């Protein structure tokens, strides 16, 4: 049942290219985006002036990445909320808003309550869900399913990755609908999305090098993940993967925010992972990595092939294949999933069923 892997999580990490192919195959047909599963109003973002993305945990991190991409491509403001906050903060929703709820299980209590709040006010809703016929899928106005297949490990990997892909497809389609993306750019971006599964396969080939590196941090007390923009979204998910299965305290920080307090936590040898997939932000994040290094921090860089000058600052560097920077999360997350996995294995922990956690959080 684990397909020759020691844990479901590792099996599911390796299933990501296939899950991505299946999801892309559903929503990109004959080199065009196919959103025939949902209303044309939402598919074309007709009359929508503001988007809310509401979710918990890793699905919320997808929302953070999607925020940058949708705003960039479609030019529509996006606000991302934790479902547990959204449902109690009396959000000022308008009929011209779209509320997107992202959930693997489709049963997360807070996400479901957030969805109901929007549905009750007759606000257009769109769910991005993995489990067919789940509560969120049934109650949302429109649904786009991720085709990740069943996810068994508590820590999400392939569902997260397929949620991202749906956000890419939406952002590109909306960019075209709003006239902010040319036909030529639309086709280039579609090709780029279609090339991601093969690049995921290539990223997985680095597994042993990451295993070796991760095994050195089995006794770590703290870790930091830093980045700017989409790299900050990647940092959040990398940090959650680390803490939830390896029980190492870790935090994600917007790189520029470190010096406002957190940098005082850096001690000799504290691992800080600097994420650098966004070319226009490289230099800024590198300067923050230098600050951490000069206080004794141990630096891992995560960047795209070709960006070799990261090695001037990082003690250890992991490279991912080049892609459009908007889509880099799909590749950069893989080494971070592997890091969390291997630190957990090095500590002899129950990778698939970490303490205190449940796969589906049906109570608030
Ligand atoms: C982390 C993880 C959780 C879920 C969160 C939402 O690896 O799995 O953070 O992402 O509980 O669950 P769903 O997506 O089922 O609503």
TrEMBL record:
GO cellular component: cytosol
UniProt-annotated location(s): Cytoplasm
UniProt record, GO biological process: carbohydrate metabolic process; fructose 6-phosphate metabolic process; protein N-linked glycosylation; UDP-N-acetylglucosamine metabolic process
GO MF annotations in UniProt: carbohydrate derivative binding; glutamine-fructose-6-phosphate transaminase (isomerizing) activity
Residue ranges constituting the SIS domain according to the UniProt record: 38-180, 213-354
Source organism, top-level taxon: Bacteria
Keywords (A to Z) from UniProt: Aminotransferase, Cytoplasm, Glutamine amidotransferase, Repeat, Transferase
Quaternary structure and interacting proteins, as annotated: Homodimer.
Keyword Lipid biosynthesis: no
Protein name: Glutamine--fructose-6-phosphate aminotransferase [isomerizing]
Residue positions of the active site: 359
Catalytic activity: D-fructose 6-phosphate + L-glutamine = D-glucosamine 6-phosphate + L-glutamate
General function of this protein: Catalyzes the first step in hexosamine metabolism, converting fructose-6P into glucosamine-6P using glutamine as a nitrogen source.
EC number(s) stated in the UniProt entry for this protein: 2.6.1.16
């Amino acid at each position: 049942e684990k397909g020759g892997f020691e844990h479901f999580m590792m099996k599911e990490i390796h299933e990501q290219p296939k899950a991505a192919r299946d999801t892309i195959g559903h929503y990109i047909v004959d080199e065009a985006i196919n959103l025939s599963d949902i209303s044309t109003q939402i598919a074309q973002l007709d009359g929508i002036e503001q988007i809310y993305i509401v979710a918990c945990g890793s699905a919320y991190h997808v929302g953070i990445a999607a925020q940058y991409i949708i705003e960039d491509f479609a030019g529509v403001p996006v606000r991302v909320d934790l479902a547990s906050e959204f449902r109690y903060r009396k959000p000022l929703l308008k009929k011209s808003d779209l509320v997107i709820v992202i959930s693997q299980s489709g049963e997360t209590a807070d996400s479901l309550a957030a969805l109901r709040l929007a549905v009750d006010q007759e606000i257009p809703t769109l769910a991005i869900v993995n489990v067919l016929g789940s509560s969120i899928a049934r109650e949302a106005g429109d649904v786009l399913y991720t085709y990740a297949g069943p996810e068994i490990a508590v820590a999400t990997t392939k569902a997260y990755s397929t949620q991202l892909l749906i956000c890419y497809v939406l952002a590109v389609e909306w960019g075209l609908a709003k006239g902010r993306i040319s036909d030529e750019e639309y086709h280039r971006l579609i090709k780029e999305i279609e090339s991601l599964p093969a690049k995921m396969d290539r990223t997985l080939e680095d597994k042993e090098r990451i295993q070796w590196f991760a095994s050195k941090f089995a006794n770590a007390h703290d870790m930091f993940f830093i980045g700017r923009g989409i790299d900050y979204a990647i940092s959040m998910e990398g940090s959650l993967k680390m803490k939830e299965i390896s029980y190492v305290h870790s935090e994600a920080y917007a790189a520029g925010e470190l010096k406002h307090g957190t940098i005082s936590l850096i001690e000799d040898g504290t691992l800080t992972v600097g994420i650098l997939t966004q070319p226009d932000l490289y230099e800024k994040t590198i300067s923050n990595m230098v600050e951490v290094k000069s206080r004794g921090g141990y630096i891992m860089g995560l960047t795209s092939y070709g960006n070799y000058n990261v090695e001037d600052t990082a003690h250890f560097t992991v490279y991912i294949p080049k892609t459009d920077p908007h889509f880099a999360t799909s590749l950069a997350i893989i080494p971070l999933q592997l890091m969390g996995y291997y630190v957990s294995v090095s500590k002899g922990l129950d990778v698939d069923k970490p303490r205190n956690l449940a796969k589906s959080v049906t109570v608030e």
